[in-house]
Amino acid sequence: MKVTKRSLQKLRTCTEAIVFLEDNFDMKKGVNAVEGIKFFMKHDRFRDCNWFLTRIMTHEQRVKYAIYAASQVLCIFEKRYPNDKRPRKAILAAKRYL
User: Fold this and answer.
1) Which of 40, 67, 70, 83 has the fewest CB atoms within 10 Å, measured from its CB?
2) What are phi and psi of 2, to 5 degrees?
């Protein structure tokens, strides 16, 4: 998937992220989405990377991504709040939804 300045503007990407890409790529021709994501990661712009990634995913992919992310930190939450089962139940409900 090619990403251009116009497509980023349609997604309402912040100006700072667009300028950052324009400074490093010919955005009129576009940049491959994977290359753009890797570039953001290389420059410690994980917030931009995450934001963009979730905008190009399908609904099902976003749900899977949310399940994965929540599962990664569930042990931290449960360690602090051992009696609160809501996050675990929410993850299970999302998995059943899929």
Assistant:
1) 83
2) -90, 140
